[in-house]
Design a protein that fits this description.
Blueprint lengths: L4 E6 L9 H11 L4 E8 L8 E4 L2 E6 L1 E2 L2 E2 L8 H16 L4 E5 L3 H12 L5 E5 L10 H13 L2 E4 L2 H9 L6 E3 L19 E5 L8 H11 L7 E5 L5 H10 L6 E5 L6 H5 L4 E4 L8 H8 L4 E3 L16 E2 L5 H13 L1 H18 L2 H19 L1
Parallel strand pairs: 1-2, 1-7, 2-4, 7-8, 8-9, 9-10, 11-12, 11-14, 12-13, 14-15, 15-16
Antiparallel strand pairs: 3-4, 5-6
Length: 376
């Protein structure tokens, strides 16, 4: 019997924390049982174990360096923690066929160090960042340049991120593999109340939720009983709640808080439109989940969003930082059933054709096997 291909995944954060990378790793590894996965991540809390098995993945969390707790050390030391843990696993269990780092951040720094020590092991780097990479601190941008150059293959989730990687003078092969959706879980169902809007995101500035709150105040002038469900948590939560109160929207906006991804379809089923007026976006899996669930979407033409949103066909574009325009697009969908039905039908078809996790996993299977064969 042939031995399974062995892949070591490096990621700064993993479950139970929920984000685009975490969901991508979980959904792809679940669909690749023929590959053996180990994963190294940070121990962000003492409440999570240093080792556990999640699905088919052995998860190792590193929380100290030479006896010093990572809680007492700057996060820039995390690459060293990752490197030391990986070397320990390699010495104990043998070499990996592929080292795969998610995000060009601290975990990828660990992959960069490993590539120096194990130059023959293929180093795969996946870029998923949703923030504006050109506006990050200069040191991070400087170090990222070297990480890119050390990778054997770079995958990105959108054309926008592919252009960014190329702008760094990287000659590494680039493959565009977007994040996906579980279309068996996210599907059209429920009543879809026509006067309920929903957004799902981390409550941080880049996602533009403050602009959406202002837009709801505008929509309320024509639709007094309009409702907005805000799913998610983050550093802006208190600020957004205060803003809603000052605008007299206590009865119009409900802050749901963090919701497990498995329960998100229940909330999408209550709404009729999904809106997120992002300031920057790597791709935006929340939009694809909403489209799969049968909701028309309103979004800004930034980052990777134009990869899947064609204005008037699979969604509507609104202007960045413009609550009046956001409100206009919401009112347009509320008042035009033909447009709404077209957006719903086309959105679901697009997700089924290009963005299912089965299709995404097939692409990673090909990459892993090709990389491991090249190593030999």
């Amino acid at each position: 019997m042939l031995e399974k291909t062995r892949v070591l995944i490096l990621t700064t954060a993993y479950l139970p924390q929920i984000g685009g990378s975490e969901l991508a790793i979980k959904n792809t590894t679940d669909r690749l049982p023929e590959i053996k996965f180990d994963l190294i991540t940070s121990q962000l809390s003492k409440d999570v174990p240093e080792y556990e098995r999640i699905g088919d993945v052995n998860v190792y969390r590193v929380g100290e360096i030479m006896g010093l707790s990572s809680f007492l050390l700057p996060k820039n030391f995390f690459p060293i923690s990752v490197f030391l843990k990986a070397v320990k696993l390699i010495r104990k269990q043998g070499h990996y066929d592929v080292i795969h780092a998610y995000q060009a951040s601290q975990a990828a720094g660990g992959g960069w160090l490993l590539k120096w020590v194990y130059p023959k092991t293929p180093f795969l780097l996946t870029i998923q960042e949703g923030k504006d990479l050109n506006r990050q601190p200069w040191l991070m941008r400087f170090l990222r340049h070297f990480i890119f150059r050390k990778a054997d293959v770079i995958t990105v989730i959108s054309n926008y991120l592919a252009q960014y990687v190329r702008s760094q003078n990287s000659k590494v092969p680039i493959s565009i593999i977007p994040n996906g959706v579980d279309v068996s879980k996210f599907k059209p169902e429920g009543e879809h109340n026509s006067k309920v809007i929903i957004t799902s995101s981390r409550l941080v500035k880049k996602n533009g939720i403050g602009d959406l709150v202002d837009a709801i105040a505008v929509v309320k002038k024509e639709v007094p009983d309009i409702k907005l469900l805000v799913v998610g948590s983050g550093e802006q939560a208190k600020e957004l709640k205060t803003k809603s109160s000052l605008l007299g929207l206590e009865n119009n906006i409900e802050f749901i808080g963090e919701v497990p991804n498995d329960l998100l379809p229940q909330y999408l089923a209550k709404a009729s439109i999904f809106v997120r007026p992002s300031l920057s976006e790597g791709l935006g899996i929340a939009f694809l989940e909403a489209m799969a669930a049968g909701l028309p979407v309103v979004a800004t033409p930034v980052g990777g969003i134009p990869d899947f949103l064609k204005d008037g066909e699979t969604g509507l574009f609104c202007k960045v930082g413009d609550p009046e325009d956001i409100a206009e697009k919401i009112n347009t969908i509320l008042s035009d059933d033909n447009l709404r039905n077209r957006l719903i039908t086309n959105g679901r078809k697009l997700v089924e054709a290009k963005y299912t996790w089965d299709k995404i996993s097939d692409k990673f299977r090909e990459l892993y096997l090709e990389a491991s064969n090249n190593e030999q």
